[in-house]
Design a protein that fits this description.
alpha/beta; about 30% helix; eleven-stranded mixed β-sheet; TIM Barrel; 3 domains; Rossmann fold; globular; single chain
């Protein structure tokens, strides 16, 4: 998907702004402070349907005009959001049947947000009314550059009757007959065979993995269709150069981000993260919620995830200004400097906008202690000053970031279907011995964090995106492909992975990859199925493990390392062992193998590696990562990307101690001259952006973001 041309040459910077919430200060004072902080964009309007339409059919639209006019005269652009995620009291009173129903039959009570059945005709009717009034009034305003439809959709898996009826129609369209459904889902088991479509049970007590996977796919379709429906209404008023998006919270249960953005114009997401020691290298801080990350690696992963949605730059519609969360016990404002570090890390991974939630900290309501740029007093403080410093830095590098593409050393395959399948029937146990519903994320993260700690930068693909590439292009653009766990895998995908390896790619595959088919059915073949020959291994048995177990290095440079969670009982069939189990049921057998096949290679990881093992794996697999062009002290990271005329280096010190970085090459025509072997000093919690003119490095072809890159010093 092409990124909107009007945005390509810009780095937008700003915050969500709600003059209608304000308790202190004035609109003019706020906008002037924004200008002084380098703001170029604000987001408005998406949370206040009852302000737009206080009573059914009575619209009040002019209150926003002063905000848009004030922003425009100051050179600040505006994104308008449709207000459909928080419905007005009159609507829930008029049509209580629009309330969302969840799995146990419980009706979600009013008083929160997003408690809506997206398919309900009454909801759609009133939503369309307010959208047409709001967008019709302001789409032509010169400040408006784009629109956000709804807000973080997909909070609930909807179990309303109309949703279930839609699910039955979805199955009829896909399977045709109940006999075909009976066969594909093996409904003979437990006497679940259907004679008629109206016999299909509701999902409340369902125990069929095939039913559950299709149910999750349908839930995502409901959300995608809802967002697409809104986008089409907005496009009736938008001009061709105004974009349409929605802001994605990536771990919402009913989200297929690739499908949603395919119906829009640009990816936008909300990467929240743990601050203070949660952004300190080498320190583990608990991640209490899936909608935020903990660890520098987790923040960077969110950026890579957003880029992967459309394989294009993205917008950050919300992120931390300071404390996040809806409770007073979650107060963790950033250490001085962390705001700039975090923002630049997202820019390095492809963000074209950094927008904070929100401008002013609210004085009342559930998010009273969700800190904004301006505190409760309305008096600018440290957070404002740091954000203003960041605004100036972004303006400095903006002219040099046109057509910027993040570098990558390896590509990860991300499987939403496998994540959904594992949430229902997980392969890993939780610490209490029960099912680990986050198994997919834990497996994926074990590989991703290992790559990050090895200094390796990541690009992500999704299965359909991979299949859209010709195998020669896949090998050329993604020479190392990591598949942490692809349990839900079509035959076409597995054949493509095997062909990829034979044609010259290095495939690194983790547990359960190739074991299931596209309906999460275990394949009736010797594991790992279509990958067995190219991997040079088979396995018949597998086992969970209750504690971490040590391994022996055979062909991998390794100190102390462990395997966790899972062991495949691998038999070699041409492959060589890189690592063997030291203990456990398969002691002495391979844990990690590698095998040359055709012009390429398959490395199979039959376990969930700990950090040490994952780091060692990527240091072995990637000879010359981009970060290898620099030597650094502990606590520093190197991120990079290129434009047609330059390479941009982001050097970050995620540490309370002074750090240093030294290039092992001589950059040409850099922003500030650097000689080979010259050491850059970085104060605690600071970053440097080095803009290097094209010469000693080669930028990718801007017409192809997946072009292979020539490494500096290679």
């Amino acid at each position: 998907m092409d990124f909107p041309p009007k945005l390509n040459g810009r780095l937008l910077f700003g915050a969500a702004y709600y003059d209608e919430y304000r308790r202190v200060g004035s609109l003019d004072a706020d906008l002037d402070l924004m200008v002084n902080a380098g703001f170029s964009v604000i987001r408005v309007g998406e949370s206040v349907w009852s302000t737009w339409e206080p009573r059914q059919g009575e619209y009040e639209l002019e209150w926003l005009l002063q905000v848009l006019d004030g922003a425009h005269v100051r050179g600040i652009d505006v994104i308008i959001g449709t207000p459909t995620y928080a419905i007005p009291p009159w609507l829930q009173k008029l049509h209580p049947e629009i309330a969302a129903e969840v799995a146990d039959g419980h009706i979600v009570g009013w008083g929160g947000r997003q408690e809506i059945d997206y398919l309900n005709a009454h909801f759609r009717e009133h939503a369309e009314g307010v959208i047409r009034q709001q967008i019709g009034r302001y789409a032509s305003h010169p400040a408006v550059i784009g629109f956000q439809v709804d807000n973080e959709p997909g909070l609930y898996l909807l179990h309303n009757r109309d949703v279930f009826d839609g699910f039955v129609e979805y199955l009829k369209s896909k399977y045709g007959t109940v006999d075909h459904l009976n066969q594909e889902w093996n409904l003979t088991f437990w006497s679940h065979r259907l004679a008629e479509w109206d016999e299909l049970w509701t999902p409340n007590g369902n125990r069929s993995p095939q039913y559950q996977l299709e149910w999750r796919r349908y839930q995502a379709k409901v959300v995608t269709d809802f967002v697409s429906w809104q986008a089409e209404i907005v496009r009736d008023y938008a001009t061709p150069d105004q974009f349409v998006t929605t802001c994605i919270s990536y771990e919402r249960p009913a989200i297929d981000d690739v499908a949603i953005v395919a119906a829009l114009g640009v990816t936008a997401g909300n990467p929240y993260y743990k601050m203070q020691d949660g952004l300190r290298m080498g320190v583990d801080v608990a991640r209490p919620e899936l909608w935020w990350s903990s660890g520098v690696w987790g923040l960077v992963q969110q950026g890579d995830r957003m880029f992967s949605t459309a394989q294009a730059p993205f917008l950050v519609t919300e992120t931390n200004a300071q404390t996040i969360g809806q409770s007073q016990w979650q107060n963790h404002p950033p250490y001085p400097g962390q705001i700039g570090l975090a923002a630049m890390s997202l820019v390095a991974r492809g963000s074209k906008m950094i927008e904070y939630w929100q401008w002013h900290t609210m004085n009342s309501g559930i998010e009273t202690y969700w800190g904004g740029v301006i505190p409760h007093s309305g008096v600018p403080g440290r957070i404002y000053r740091e954000i203003a410093q960041l605004g100036a830095a972004l303006r400095d590098i903006e002219p040099m970031m046109v057509d910027y593409v993040p570098d990558y050393d390896v590509t990860f395959l991300y499987s939403t279907d496998t994540k959904w399948a594992y949430q229902f029937d997980p392969p890993l146990a939780a610490s209490d011995g029960g099912p680990n519903r986050d198994s997919y994320l834990d497996i994926f993260d074990s590989f991703y964090r290992g790559a990050f700690e090895a200094g390796v930068q990541v690009r992500m693909l999704h299965p359909d995106q991979l299949l859209d590439l010709h195998v020669a292009e896949l090998v050329r653009a993604h020479p190392i492909l990591v598949v942490p766990s692809q349990y839900v895998a079509s035959t076409a995908l597995l054949e493509r992975l095997a062909e990829y390896a034979n044609r010259g790619g290095h495939l690194i595959a983790g547990i359960r990859t190739g074991y299931g088919d596209d309906l999460a059915r275990a394949r009736a073949v010797v594991a790992p199925g279509a990958l067995a020959t190219v991997a040079g291994i088979t396995y018949e048995e597998y086992s969970n493990i209750d504690t971490s177990l040590p391994v022996n290095a055979v062909g991998l440079a390794l100190d102390e390392a462990n395997v966790t969670g899972w062991m495949d009982g691998i038999e070699l069939n041409g492959a060589e062992a890189l690592v063997t189990y030291q203990e456990g049921i398969y002691a002495g057998r391979p844990a990690v193998t590698t095998h040359q096949t055709g012009d390429g290679r398959v490395t199979y990881v039959g376990t969930v590696p700990d950090r040490a093992l994952a780091r060692a794996l990527f240091r072995w697999a990637v000879d010359e990562p981009w970060s290898g062009s620099w030597k650094t002290s502990d606590g520093l990271t190197i991120a990079s990307g290129s434009t047609p005329s330059s390479r941009i280096w982001f050097i970050s010190n995620w540490s309370p101690d002074e750090g240093w970085a030294t290039p092992s090459f001589e950059p040409q025509h850099v922003e500030k001259p650097i000689g080979i072997g010259e050491t850059l000093k970085l104060a605690p919690w600071t970053y440097r952006v080095i803009v290097e003119a094209r010469g000693s490095t080669t930028a990718p072809d801007p017409s192809n973001a997946d072009a292979p890159l020539e490494k500096a010093g290679a």
